Amino acid sequence: MKFLSSIFLLWILSFSAFATDIPSRIDISYSVTTDIGHGELNEVVEIKHNNNSYRYSITSEAQATGIYKLIKPGSIVRHSEGIITKHGLRPSRAFEKRGNKEPSVADFDWKNHIIKLQHKGKREQEKLPEGTLDRLSLSYNFMFAPLPKHHVEIYVTDGHSLKLSRYTVTEEILNTPIGKLETIALTRQEEKNAKVKRKLWLAPNNHMLPVRVVSIEEDGRELEKIVTGINISYQAGH
After folding, report:
1. Separation between Cα atoms, residue 234 and residue 203, nearest integer Å
2. CA dist., res. 117 & res. 72, Å (int)
3. Rounded Cα gap, residues 90 and 235, in angstroms
4. Domain edges within the chain
């Protein structure tokens, strides 16, 4: 566990010291494999410094390729935006849009501790637990938040529900198209016979960026995305 312990020690540094190394933009490309075809996915993280605070914006767009594009035309767009705190990302709004369908939207009202959800024309609201993330911001949260050594518990929304997710934390060496990477793997602990599964791999030597995600969605669709390229930009005085 020497590797994992060294990563944990990095977070002894103060957020202000760490913030000097915050990128202004990150572009990541992935190859996507499903049980019925292949695709490509691009994610862009933009970070802006205003009035002694940092705001983030993450946009993810996936497109099917080849024959799979005939089966699943259109794109899947996910977006998350909010602020960065010493505890991690704090979303203000997130949405997911599939093709021409109405988007699923989550609005985070931190002042009144309410999350407003919109899905398939239905609107509802729930109590907003501290530290709640959307699925997209979860993948990037540990760029800015301390990562516990063994387990992570966090509320996550997909725009139409809010659930407490529990992950185990392990270390793995991952072979990727951009080379062999040391990673921290987060594996969601599911109830027995659960259809939905999720595991993500974060790269400590690349700002804890997500370099692989494997999931089984509610519709039973199996999906894997693995990194094919990373471009990180820094802005002077950012």
Report:
1. 18
2. 26
3. 22
4. 2-229
| pTM for the model | 0.87
How far is the C-alpha of 43 from the C-alpha of 46, rounded, in Å? 10
CB 66 within 8 A of CB 73: no
Residue 129: closest CA among 150, 145, 153, 151: 153
- For the stretch 36-79, pLDDT in tens is 778 899 999 999 988 888 999 999 998 877 655 545 656 889 99
Q: How many CB atoms lie within 10 A of CB 56?
A: 22
- Return d(Cα 144, Cα 146) in angstroms, integer: 7
The 3 state secondary structure assigned to 160-207 is: CCEEEEEEEEEEEEEEECCEEEEEEEEEECCCCCCCCEEEEEEEHHHC
128 touches 145 (CB < 8 A)? no
Distance CA 238, CA 236 (A): 5
Asked if residues 172 and 165 have their Cβ atoms less than 8 Å apart, the reply is no
Distant-in-sequence, close-in-space partners of 210: CB < 8 Å, separation ≥ 6: 28, 139, 140, 200, 201, 202, 203, 227
Q: How far is CA 23 from CA 83, 87, 103, in A?
A: 14, 18, 29
Assign domain 2-229 to a CATH class. Answer: mainly beta
Residue 108's closest CA among 120, 98, 154, 89?
89
